[in-house]
Structures are given as structure tokens and as C-alpha cells.
## 1
Amino acid sequence: MPESAAEVQPIAGGAHTALPHDSARKHVSGGAVYTDDILEPEGLLQAAIGISERAHAEITKLDTQSVRNYPGVVAVMAAPDIPGVNDVSPTVGGDPVFADALVEYVGQPVYAVAATDIERARRAAKKAEIEYKDLEPILTVAQALDKESFVLPSHTMRRGDSSKAIALSPHRLAGRVELGGQDHFYLEGQVALAIPQEDGDMFVFSSTQHPTEVQHSIAKVLGRPDNAVTVEVRRMGGGFGGKETQATLFACIAALLADKTRQPVNLRLDRDDDMIITGKRHDFLIDYDVGFDDDGRIRGVNFSLASRCGMSADLSGPVNDRAMFHCDNAYFLENVTINSHRCKTNTVSNTAFRGFGGPQGMMGIEYVVDEIARYLHKDPLQVRRMNFYGRGERDITPYHMKVEDNIIEEIVDKLEQSSEYTRRRGEITTFNETSSVLKRGMALTPVKFGISFTLTHLNQAGALVHIYTDGSVHLNHGGTEMGQGLHTKVAQIVAEEFQIDVDRIKVTATNTGKVPNTSATAASAGTDLNGKAAQAAARTIKERLAKFAAEHYGVEPETVVFRANEVIAGKNRIPFSELVKLGYQARISLSAAGYYKTPKIHYDRENTRGRPFFYFAYGAAVSEVVIDTLTGEYKMLRVDILHDAGKSVNPAIDLGQVEGGFIQGMGWLTTEELCWDDIGNLTTHAPSTYKIPACGDLPNDFRVELLETGANREDAIHRSKAVGEPPLMLSLSAFFALKDAIASVSDHKMSPRLDAPATPERVLLAVEELKERMSSVATETYESAEAPSR
Amino acid sequence: MSDTIRFVCDGDVVELRGVDPTMTVLNYLRTVANKTGTKEGCAEGDCGACTVVLRELDGEKVRDLAVNSCILFLPTLDGKELITVEDLASNDGTLHPVQRALVESHGSQCGFCTPGFVMSMFALYGAENKPSRLTINDTLSGNLCRCTGYAPIVRAAEKMYEYDGIANNGDQDDKTVSLLKSIQRNDALSMEFNGRHYFAPTTIAELAKLRKEYPKAPILAGGTDIGLWVTKQHRDLETVLYGGNVRELKQIGRTAAHMEIGAGVTLSDAFSTIAESYPDFGEVLRRFGSVPIRNAATLGGNVANASPIGDAMPPLIALDSKLSIRHGRKAREIPLDEFFIDYQKTALEPGEFIEKILIPLRPDHRLGVYKISKRLDQDISAVCAAFSLRLEGNRVADIRICFGGMAAIPKRAFKCEEALLGNEWSRENVQQAAVKLDEDFSPITDFRASERYRSLVAKNLLLKFLIETSVSNTKTRVIDYAGNVHA
């Protein structure tokens, strides 16, 4: 069926309409049910986890007697009590449910308790007597590199001869930038409710992005087949990657305790425990060595990316791969070598977080480009343009994929105009000349982000569609709703397909019993994959109905048209629901499963060649900031964004992703600082100490637009583009605006050293360091520092 | 004395007895009342997912206060109306303008923080007509949202006035007023639950008597600190004395020489009085914590908990404030800078409590107050500085400098003061005096800031104060840009 049919939209809530989130009314009136809001089943127990207090130690004694004796306690479990396999790793192992003999981070679960109420469970979970024999911990990336402590082998991606190109370049710069991690801070903490069923089966409500993995892991730890476990998730109170693998552990613990007690068990983490026990965005140490010409064009670049993976591999393999895949961002790197080290440390195992390594890889190249510009005394935008991928030339990525859909120049041109970049650049310069305490800065950064799971086989999805005899539609698919509006968009796609109003369609809770073997709702691919699968299911039913209508009314099946809640067959027009009823009576199946797999993609990891991405999403942002050179405090003044969501399925929801993604990324690069003490305790484990952006951090003037002419050149669902992760990286402009403001202290003669997150402290220390450098240069060879060439 | 908590909910008076007085309102809502619309995000009053509105009598009218239900003890509802997210829509399902604006502005994504935003905005809706962006930011400073980036929520807060209101209709108000009047009390609330005692006296004489009887019992005011003893530290509080109903503690007075702030006056209520005389102090009070925190927390509590980073201390000490301390029927005065002895240790004797804070009016002084934190709003200071300066000509006739975050207690910079006193108020002298701060303080490194940053910022703030007192019409603070779209 041609997609051009979508252009007529008499139905309510079809594709490309700006529908509110399907739960919005429930959100604002308290009626949206999250896992902890589910009506309590009879005999419900509450669980809590006893955790390791050491970063690296052998457990020489674990005595849970006083836990068992605590009032209200019904069951206690530790490693030896697990009937199946003591592992919940999504990949290569190393993630025990409960530490067995060895603890590898502060906060690692050692045992769990189920009690009659949550306060008793939490108090009891602090009562076990644990004796440790301490081992030497590795806590930082630098220590891990030094000791060659890795969770996975290092990996190299190479194109051309970068070392030779660098050596032959007119200019060369080398340096290092450190990037901090980030806590997800989903507002709803980790939670699961397990209810035992007949035959020893288990039904689990889990706040997870990956119900299938939760299902399979529960089966594994219980020593039962997958078909004994059903996992359901109606909605999450935020995910951001933090519930891709991290929810599994808690669902498993709830299921283990429910299995043991034969009572329902709820496990809801306290915020501090959640932040201490669960993994975060990987912090990175990036070293670069770049050669470039007088125009700032990069001739060759070497990157070393070392990340803190924590105590296990978890998703660190693909996260670090994606960092490597995005070391180019929107720039053509003819000669490039990227070495990636996946460091093992005695800290919590880091995991997926919106962008999945992409932001860190991009920070590497953007830092390099910014350094080149400052060295050459050019506006960084000029150097960025100099290095953009071309169209039809200069279009091969470091992994040998041809960039076929490049629109970065179009976006940057438009944004440069609409944001009045040049005029404001002048204003900022004038302001800085007269303002001694406050300084302003501005930066424009681009985004090119690859869409698809880089592990090719994950790019598949299923859906299940039923039409009931009243014409109402039950829609189910393998994706999960975490606030991103996936269910709304998929419902719109099905409404469009059937040509019925979207309120005739109910998207039901994601359930492993309805659509099996799903991939995580991740990699921005939720709508791309599940939308296509749901569309396929709807088309199957629609074709059956069209065939039936053709027979019934004696017309050709191709001439049957579904439009505006009606079906037109020759001269007959009947309501959709009427045709459904007739079809049922004529014994037409009104239920179908749909399936989709992303075409065109393949990747040979061994040789780092292929087409790992179906397409790229693009965007650009200009941030302007004011800093206080006496305190390092700052405020975002204005941010302009132009983002490519293709032909958006729901422009309102997609705009929300862009705005929210930017602010979340800005938090990562500014105020969100994770701190550990010198024995491996996380010291920022609550909102009182870990500062995500608040309302006042919103830029005063925030102008966000979707690219109006956007359309995916690939056959993605309704020519839209994935929009979950890409906008997060627009926030790099905020970081480089800060760097620009700091550089103004030296009248842009020098480049400041700035690591992320750029807290007020880091900003002030960068200002101070710049001032010191200036005064030492002033007394020595000021002239030579000004000269751009060597 | 009565042992029954009475509050209004859903248009009816709810009476509770035999409940744990340290149960939080949030836990009551979610586990007893089966109203799960209100969420727990952090259980420490920092994320706002649990925000509810308390409607209380204000003469013949009512006023609405957004508060954090996660750290609010159930008996403190006594005499008030509790309004939650479930209560705003009409019975026929018509959304309140706040809710409608959020839906139509796409202000919810995952929706978990949304009930809290709805309630904060509901309190604003009743109080303001066309709030500025700064007021909106301020109202929402205690509500964290991780999905939307706040932009659509701010748009909703601007848009909500465009709809026909269903709230604030006069009949309902009258009914509420009479219901609330019916549950006001003149006697103390006194509860006992499994050996745990809770007293809520209404007069200072009663409180003084109880304080002598239970000298170790903490005095509960807003609960923004004590609440966490229960939710985070899982402590069993044997006896709690609630001071929030004591009339005398809630008074604000003014003499020729002083402002007098009762120890039970909330930061929100103290704000306008203080800000009028000392705008910088007011700004620090605004950034002290979120609106729900300021609606609960008291100036007396901020003094009594003796935190090294209580933001009110530097300005209070710089202004040479005094405490009136009560013991039984006796009262004594003590300068605030003699009150703090060591980390969380004060000069309070057993049986004593703070009655009021006396803040001198010093129109001949210039007060500069600076709060330095990672995040501008709703964050705890890395350093908080206050300078109170009186110049004669260009000579320093009087100066008091106090810092928070630089030592185990809020502490004056005596050596720095000494270096400045009597000398010309000049850049050169200030720079020399700033070095003395290294002798006054040996700050620590922690997750809020490093020792180096604290030392550096402390000196720079003195310099900033010099610039602000010497040069006019120069913007010297990024906070001046906050919420100002056309800065």
C-alpha cells in the first residue's frame, strides 16, 4: 500500500499529528499506574537488599542470623540459596545476583530480605554480619590503564595512516580531556513486583526497558525454562538506558524471594540505594594527537578512548564501540586510528545511558576541533565547517561506511542564520571588552548520530494486533513506554494504517507473553522497529479485510480503500467497525502478529568495516552562556536548536525529546558530578548531593525547532527519524560555549583546559589556570604564543 | 489534650488516632489512604515528586502551601486541609486549568514527576495572576523533571491562566474555611504510639514545660532535617516536640533597632520582612531551598541544627544577630556568633530552646551575601559568604565577615576583618586582607568543592563585594540573568 495515502488525514491522530502523550491526562491527575502503584496483592511482602561495604574484598564470613531474627522478616537469601544460575549479565557474565565469596564494588548486593513491610525489610537488610578480607581496589581509569585491568579486550578502528599523516601535517596538537559519568536519575527508582503462579511459574511486573531479558534472566536464576516466566511493563517513570540491563537484577531478586516464600514480593529501591547499586554513564579519559593544516582541516588524528566500565562487562562492549563509531561526529577523518580500552575497576558496572558512548566519542572530536580553532585563532565554527563530511566526496566514515544522507551543512547554514550567530558573536566580543567580572561565550556544535543497534541481530521487532467485533483495536508491541511517547506514536501508525481515529486503539502493557524475544527499547530505535512491526500486523489484517470486502461487494481487492473511519468498496461505503463485524461473521481472522527487521545493515567487527547504521540523524545547536570569572558560576542565556527528526510521526513528542535531551546532556556536561572517596564509596547518591538540572537552569531563551524539510531518505517508518538519543549531544554546544567564555579571559589568545562536567569549580580553576599561563607568558615570550604556526 | 489528628481531605474531616506520629504524609497517602497519585522520588525533599498542597486558615481566608509530603510527619496535618493530585479534576473528569495546560503543552513525558509539578503549579495558580519567568522558575525549583527539560512545563505555567478556572470558587472557600475552623484547637495534640510520644503544644509556656520534661527530645519545626532522620537514617524517635503550632514562635516583629523573627516562622514567611531591609539576604533565602522546603523550614530550625552550611548563618552573623533563648519562664539573649561551638554543637543548655532571632536593622551598613553552589537553585552551598560594611568616607568604620562551608561551623573571618578595619576600602587593601582568609579558615575538600576552590572563591567574593560597593551599574552576578529573557 502506498505511503502517500498518509497525506490525506481526515482521521483524528494519524501519522504526523502533534498528539499529546496517550497517558498525559492520567499523568496530570494521578491515575497513571506505575509498578509501585499496582493494587497490592494479598500477602504482599516487601524486599530490601544487603550490600557490600567494600570495593574489593573476599567475604570470609556471612552470617544472616540477625537478619532472620529481625521482626517481620519472612525470608533471607544469599548466593548459595539461588536455585538456578547466579548471574544476570546481559552479555559475557560477571554480574552475580548476590556476591559469592568476592565483592567487587561498594554497593554490590550480598543478600536480600523479604519482610512484612518495607521499613522492617530495610532495617533488617543492614543487620547481617559480614567479614571481609580486603583486596587492593582499582578505582580510576588511570589506575586500571596502569595495571592493564580490562573487562574486555582493547579494540582498534583504523582508516588510512594516521600517524604518518599527523607527522606530515603543518600543525600538530596533542592533549587529554576527561569526561565524567552521569547518573540516570529516572524519577521512578528501580522496582519490581513478583507474583508466584501455578506450576512454580512467575509473573513479574518490572520497570524495565527490556522485559525479554528480565524474563530470560529470571528463568535462569530460578532454574526454569523461559516459558515459566511472564514479564509485564505498562510504563516506567523514566529509563534513559538505566533500565536496559539494570532493572534485571531487582526483578530477579523479587522473583527469587517470591519463589522461596510463595508470596508476592515487591522490591522498590530507596533513592540512595538505587544510585549506589546501579550503573551509570561511563566516564572517559580521552587522549588525542591531531595533525592539521593552516585552514584547520584535519589531516590525521589518533584517539585513545579509555572508559571506566566498573566491575563487569555489562554493555560496556557495545557502549565503547559506539564511542568509537562517533569519534568522527560530522567530520571526515581521512586518516584516523581509534584505540579503545575497556577498563575494569572496583566500582559499579557502568551501563547504557542515552547516547550509549556516542556523546563521549563526540566530545573527543569536538574538543579536538575546538583546540585547533583556538590554536589557529579562528572561530571554531569555521574549523567545523572545514571538516564536515562532503556529499559525494569526503564521505567515508572511519568504519568504511559511506555517508549517503548528509545534511549537516544545510542544518548548520539554517541555524547560523536563524540564531543570528554572526551578529551575536560581535555583540559578545563587545560585551567582553567592557565587562571585567562577567564574560560571555558562544558555540555551535553539530550532531550526526548513527541509528541501529550496532549488534545487527538486535534490529528486529514484533507486534500483535487484534480487532474486536466492535471495531476497537488492541495493540501490543515489543517496545516499552518510558515517557518517550512510543505507545502514542505506534498507535498513530496503526490508526493511519487502518484509517481509524487513534482513540479506537488501545496500546496495552508490554508483555513477554504477547510478543516474545524482543530487543530492549533502546538505541533510539523504538518507533523505527516497533512502528514497522505494528504496521505490518495491521496491514495483514487490513489485507484480509480488503479481500473479504472485495468478495462481499464484488469488486477488485485493490480498489478497496480504507479512509476516514470508513471502508470504500466500489460504490459501497461502510463504517470500519461495520466491516469488522461482517468480517467476523464471515470467519475472517481479526488478529495478526507483525514482524520487522531493519534492512541493509551489516558489520564486520573484526575488520571494523561495514554498514552498522541504517541511517544518520542530524542536528545542530548554538549555546550562549555568561560566566562569572570570580566564582565560576554560569547561566545559559540562549540556546537555538535545529534538529532533524525526518518526517516526524509526532512533532510535539519529538520536540519534547529534543528539548529534554538537550537539558539532560547539559546536566552531564555542567552540574552533574559523580564523586567517589578514596576507598570507593560514591559520595553523591541523592538529589541533595547530585545536581541534575532544575527549572532555573533552562536557558532564558530556548528556541527549538525540528527541520521542517526533514525526510528520511531510507524507508524508515513514515520517513521519520529516530529522536531519542541524538538531541542529547546537542548539549556539547553548552560545554564549548563555557570554554569559549573562559577563553575570552585571555582575549582568545589561549585555549583553556576544561574537563567535564564543567562545574563552577572547574570553570573558575580553568579561568585561574589561563590567567597564570598568561602572566607567565607575558613575562617570557608573549609574541611566540600569539603566533599560530610552529 | 487530645490524641486525635484531624485534617480535611476530599471535603471531609479525617480523624486519625493510634497512628505512628513519625509516619510521613506520603506513606499515609500511598499505603493507608490508597492514593498512589503522589510519588516518592527521593524521600528527602529534594525532587518534589511527592509535592502536595496544604490549605490552612489565614484569618477569614485560606492560603495554599506546596510542601514535600515525603518528609512531613502525619500529625503536622492537624488543623489543615490536605490536597493531592487526585483532588483537582472535577467529578465529571474536567481537568483543572493547571492539568489542562500541562496536557496541552506536552508537559509530561514519563509522568512520574508530574503530580508534584501539578501541585506546585496549583499553589501558584491560586496565588498569582501572571507570574514572571523568575517566579515560575522559583515555584518549580523544588520539582525535578528528568524528561522534558522543563521548557513545556514553563509554557504550561504561563498558559494555565488562559483557561476558565474551576478553582477558587467562593462557595468552596467558605465551606473550607468553616471546615478548617471546626478543627482548630486550643489544646495540645498529644499522641503515643508503641512508646513513641508526640506533643504539639499551642503556647510557648506549654512548650517550655515539655522541653524541661523531655530535654533530649528534638523540637520539630518544618521537619526538613528531622524528617530525614526517619526516612534515611531509619532512626526511632522516642519523643517529638512539635513547635509548629506554638503561636508565639510564629510571630514577626519589628522595633526601631531589630527585626524579630520567631523561631517557628517559616522561611517563606520571613522572606519579605528580611528582603525588604536586606535584598541580598532575601536572595539567599530565595535560593536557600525550593518553595516547598521554604514553606516548611524555619529560620529557628536552620539556626538550631547548627549545620556548617546553613545559609542563613553568614548573613545573620554578619549582621550581629542575637538569639533569644528560653528556659522555662526565663529567657536569655546570646550573640549568634557565640552560639556555635563545634560541628553540630551549640550553646543550648538542656531544657533550652530558641524563641526568636533578633536581626539588627543597620541602614548605615551595606550587606553583601553570596551563595556559591554547583546548581543555582535548590542546592547546598559550597561556600556562603556575608559581608556587612560601614564606610566613613572611604574608610572601613565597621566590618563583619562570616562564611559558611569554610569550617565546621559558620564562622567569622576575624583576621580578615582586622586587616580591613580602619583602612581605606580599596582594591589593594582588600587584596591584602583577602590573603588573611587563609589564616582564618582551613576548608576541606568534599563532593561539593575542593579546598582550593573554597579558598579561592572566598577571596574572590570579598573582591566582588568591593567591586559592587565601588562601581555602580555593573552586572557582577550571573544570577542577575536568571529568568531574564531579555538580559
## 2
Amino acid sequence: MSFFNHRNNLIHAVIAAALSAINIYIVLSLEPPNLAQGIFGNIFYIHVPVAWTAFLLYLCVMISGILFLTKKDKVWDHRSLAFAEVGTIFMFLVLTTGPIWAKPAWGIFWPWEPRLTTSLILFLIFLGYFMLREFGGNPEQVSRYAAVVGILAFLDVPLIFLSVKFWLPEMQSHPQVGQYFDSANPLPTYLLIFSFLSLLVVSSLMIRLRTNILSMKEAN
Amino acid sequence: MLIHFILKDLKIEWRSKEIITSMFLFGLSITLIFALAFQVAPMLIRTFAPGLLWVVILFTSVLGLNRLFSLEREEHAMWSWISAPVDRGTVYISKVISALFFVLMSEILFIVPFFIFLNLPANFSFFQFALILFLGTGAIVSVGCLISGITLQAGLRDVLIPILLFPSASPVAIAATKCTESLFDQKPMTEWNFWFLILGSFFVIFGLFGYMVFNRIVEE
Amino acid sequence: MNLQVTNLSKSFYHSPVFQSFSLKMESGEKIGLSGPNGSGKTTLLKMISGIMSIDSGKIRIGENDVNPDEPDPRKNLYYLGHSVGLYPGLTGYENLTFISGLYGKTSRNISNILIKVRLDSADDKLVKFYSQGMLQRLKLASAIVLDPDILLLDEPLTGLDVDGIKLFESVIVEWNELRKTMIIVSHDSDWLRTNTDRIIELK
């Protein structure tokens, strides 16, 4: 692939692979806080940073959508689509790691917990976004429509979160989160940050690759 | 100019009575299905009734929005105002007002059968109920008109409207159900004014957003 | 009123229809637009009228640039297109009242104009029951009601009978005397040669 023929892109890919390998090794080898949950307890170190990354990418969809509508530069549309695709992959991971963690932690696969529910709703909006991209008609028109839907989706996030949060007050955010944090031990915090940064490196590689593919397709 | 557009929609509907009739009959049919499917102990239905009511309103709104915007699609009638010296955001606001009127009219018609078929008591403030219906419906149509405008010239638009609308309007579904539930339980308004605020915020945020972007989505 | 198009570009499904297209029209000039199907004649008129967005370039009417956020420049322009562009659920009279309201021309005597285009007997008939010829006359009536400085006419003779064509040609003569700027699309090159100042062939 011509993208990886460029030295910087290759270095980016190697760093992303290395950080991911270290991340997975840490998650698999670290002792979980609650032995009853087994190895699934450490999914927390994947689930939470993946969720942060997914929301950050969806925020980028909104920002690039605004820039596309104002500047009318096709590059922003390509970036918007790349952010949406990668963000949706990450959001899918949130929705799969969530139940995997929830079952041993809470005894049920799907707790209607605010952040998980907000993630599900946002994921569904973006599935609609991709249907619009596919079946919306003339690609030039569809780019504008998609930009508006991308902005609409993220504008909705605070309202979705607030309404779900107070909808089932008994189902508050991650009650077992506290077990991971101890003021005397900063390791969980560092691990979360490391995991998040490594996911940013991975997602930025995916976005650059995808934007490159879209720009080349447009040029052809 | 706003009145001009609203009167045009009202005049067409007055002649055909297509939108309100189809929404009313559709709402009645769904109510019948719910009554048959949930024919259990009356107290249980009373618990579900607020949620069922807003499901009916959401489904009938989709039908109404589809028909309202189809008026613009037929014979490319919308070209008359797209090429005119008219602020297209004003057209969006006029559609929100027209849609709100039509959906409220159909709600007035199927609310009575809804209460009768589900054997619900009506011992609450009708004024507060009207307020909830007004704000909840307004919130649905504010985002609904934006989505209908986006899908106006899209393929698969009949499918795309509910796919995009239902997850986007989930805060409305939650907040409106909570308001209605509290009203049916005869709780004072001070206990549920948070949900009212959610509905109002949704209406304002998406109303403003729709006004700002409508001119970019109606062009071919 | 002058009309100027500068470096206009537009693509459909990633295929360019216009690339850096430019056009300059003086006030009162009449241009014929011809070309094979798919050459972009209707697209050009739609872009000038604001129905269709442009990818890049500029369209200027008089002293003002046309863009979707500024509706004012469009008040001196009218697009008479292929498609009906009218509400089937309204009568001819109601459609004209609606359109004239959009342009702020509410003082126009719509009844007289309907008589002029010989639609007075059908003014309370819903547009969905109009024949093709009647629709074309009603669209012509819209153009007369609005009395714009710039007219974009897309195959205006389609569906008109012999009387309708004569009516339309008489209206064009009146517009010519009023020095209106016109772009007329037609597949009839002979007609364009007789009724316009110059012809632009799109490929």
C-alpha cells in the first residue's frame, strides 16, 4: 500500500502496534482488583479508554462537519467520514466490552447505565449516518447531509446523557469503578492514561489511512 | 413570510385532510394493537401507559412529517421557494409550526380512544397534560423537520426518517414519558419540572440548529 | 440587470459537469443555451437560480453575489423550469398568490394575468388536474406576475400548442422591450437563432 511506503506513516504504524501490544500485555497480566471477576475485571482498562476515544472521535465528526459546511473544502468531508467510521468501530468495541465487563461485575449483560446507554444511542444514530451516506443520493449533496447529521448527533449527547442519568436513578455510573482507585496507588490512573494515549495513536493512524484512501479515490 | 408558508400548508391540508386523517387512523391502529397485546391487569397497563402514549406519538409523527415534506417534493413544488428571495430558515420554522399543529390535532383525536381502550383514569390537570403534549411534540418535530429536510431528496427516505429520528429523539421519549407518568400519578409539577426543562432545551437547541443549517440542506 | 458567472465548477457523482465556466451578460441581453442531453443546461440555470449549490466559483446578479445565506439577490430573478415547481394541492390562482408573496409582489393583479394566459376559466381548478400545456401557461403567468429583471427559461415551449407558442413569443417581445436579461434553453436551434442575441453551445 502506498500509504505505508512513506517513512512517517510506517513509523506511526510501528509505534501504534508496539503500544497496542504493551497495552494488551498489561491488561492480561495485571492482577484484577476483584478476583471473583477474573481476568474480565481488567477489561475496565480497555473499555473506559475505548469509550473516551470513541466520544472524542465523534466530537471530531462534529467539528469537521462544521468546517465542511463553512469552508466547503472536500478534505473536511473525507476527515468527517474517517472520524465517523473509526469512531463507530471504537463505539462497537465499547458496546461489546461493556457487557463482557458488566456480567461478572453486576450479574447482567446490559445495565441501563447512563454512559453505556448514551453510547448505544449514539452508535444507532451513526448507523443511520452510514445508511444516509450510502443511500442518500448524489455524493455532493450527501456530504452536506452527513455533516448536519454528524453535528446533530453530538449536540444530542448532553441531552441523552442527562435524560438517561435521571431516568433510572438506581442505575448510576459504574458503582464498581471505585474498586480500581486507591489514593495510595496511582497505577490504575497511569494505566488508564497510557491505554487512552495508545488508542489515540492507533485511531489517528486509522484516520490518516482512511482519509488518504478517500482523497485518492476522489482524485481518480 | 412565516404566516404565508403556514397558511399554504394549512390550505392544502384543509382540502385533502390527508395528513391528520392518516396520523389519526395510524395512531388508533397502534393503540388497538397495544390494547390487545398488553391486555393484562389494569394496574399494569396504567404503569406502561405514559410510555405507550409517547411511542404512539413518535410513530404517528414520522408519518405526518413524511407526508408534510412530500407536499414539497411532489412536482418539485419546493423550487418555488428555494429560488425565491426567502430566508430558508424561515421555511424550516414554518414547517415546525405546521407539523406541530398537524400532530397535535391528530393527538387530540386519538387521545380519547387511547384512554378508553386502555381503561385509564383521567384524574389529572388537563392544562398540564396539554402543556406536556405541546412541548413533547414540539421537541419531536423540531428534530423531525430537520431530518425530513435532510432526507427530502434522498433515496430510501421513508426508512431513513425513523432510523435517524428515533435514536435522536430518545431524550424526548424519556423526558415526555417521565412528565406524563408524574402527571398521571398526580405529582406536583415541581417534582417533574426537570423533565420539562429537558423537553424545552431539546426544542430550543434543535430548533435553532435547524434554522441555521436548513438553507444548506435543501439545495440540490 | 447584469448577470456574471465566474469560474463555476460543479460535479455530480464525482464527474465534473462544469469546470471553470464563465459567462457575462449585459442588461437586456438574450442568450440561447443549447447542447446535447446531459451537457448541463438545466444544471447551469438551477445554479444561477439558487436551486442547486455550486462547488466553487461565483455568480453575480447586478452588484450582488448569489449565495444561499443571502436571499436578496434572487428577488430580481425567476427560473421557469422543466418541473412543475407548483403545488398540486393549490389552484392556479393560489399558486400565483403564494409565489408573488415570496417576492413581495402582492399588489399584482393576478386575475388579469390569468386572463392574459387564457387560464381564467381554470383559476379555481387544482393544479394537479392541469394538462401539460396549462401548467406551462401557469408557469408563464408566474413569470409575468413577478416581473423580474432576469429570466431563466428552461424549454419554455414544451407542452404548448400553437396558440400557446404565439402567446409566449408575444410575451418575449414585451420582455425584450422592457430590456429584461434572459437565458433560454431549447433544443430548437432555429427558434433560438431567431429569438436570441447569441447562442452558447454546451458540450
